[in-house]
Amino acid sequence: MADTEVLIIGGGIAGASTAWHLASLGRCVTLLERGDIASEASGVNAGGIGALGWGNVPDLQAYLTMGSLQLFRHLQLELGYDIEFRASGALQAIQTQEQYVYSRDQVLGLKSRGYTLELLTINEARGLEPELSPDLRGAVHFPLRAQADPVKSTQAFADAATQQGAQVLTGRNVTAITRQANGDYRVFCDGEVHETERLVLAAGAWCKPLGRMLGLDIPIVPVRGQMWASEPLPPRVFHSLSAAESPMHWAQSP
């Protein structure tokens, strides 16, 4: 017999948010995390919240991004969690002529579909961020984007889930998953066994080995990213900053 209605594997932002949403709907939820909450990718990223607006015809991407913006705002301003949410807007620096052509075409295509962004000259961009190098080719401005502390945000979702009755268990490394004759799942972790009616794999880059336990081929692979974080500084940088190199690389990858 199942001891929980929904079992979630993964204590990152996806797993913690899922636990909160399901628990808020009255589901009996258990979350398992092999380390601590936000101890993997969800805790070591730049905390950017992408948003381009709803567009002329809202699609899945619009609902995910604009919906996320509303969720993070709700988490801090209405539920009272200090996640360092800030509707800062964002600039994407353009370093080469190739990146400029790519960015220009992307901006024109997105604006034609009703999204909110602008291609700026370097002087226009430096009007927003005076410390930008004058040697850049320009920048893409995303006025709706925001940011929040990734560790605090993930921990806030997990705490909110607990407040709604979810059970959040850390230090649980899943070693095996089996499917029972009645359709329930049995999850083994470090001497514990959990049986559940529904199973959610929210382990990010580690979903692939978990999928193998169920005979599934989940096409997710880990990719190393880069970020730089500092202690709070005097206000010299006002937006989230990134580079056009990254989205252009992914768009051109097979």
Strand content: 15-25%
The number of domains: 2
What is the share of helical residues? 25-40%
Largest sheet: 6 strands, mixed
Number of strands: 12
Numbering strands along the chain, what is their spatial order in the largest sheet? 8-2-1-11-10-9
* Residue runs with pLDDT of under 50 for 5 or more positions: none
What is the structural class? Answer: alpha/beta
Mean pLDDT: 92
What is the chain-wise order of helices and strands?
A: EHEEHEHEHEEHEEEEHEH
Mind telling me the C-alpha Rg? 21 Å
Write down the overall geometry.
elongated
Brief summary of the model shown:
32% of the residues lie in helices and 22% in strands. The protein has 254 residues and is an alpha/beta fold. α1 (13-24) links the parallel β1 (4-9) and β2 (29-33).
Question: Can you tell me about this structure?
Answer:
The protein has 254 residues and is an alpha/beta fold. The protein has helices at 13-24, 60-77, 97-112, 122-128, 150-163, 207-212, 245-252, and strands at 4-9, 29-33, 48-49, 90-94, 118-120, 138-142, 146-147, 167-170, 174-179, 185-189, 192-201, 240-243. Helix 1 runs parallel beside helix 5 (150-163).
List its traits.
six-stranded mixed beta sheet, single chain, FAD/NAD(P)-binding domain, 32% helix, alpha/beta, D-Amino Acid Oxidase, Chain A, domain 2, 7 helices, 2 domains, 254 residues
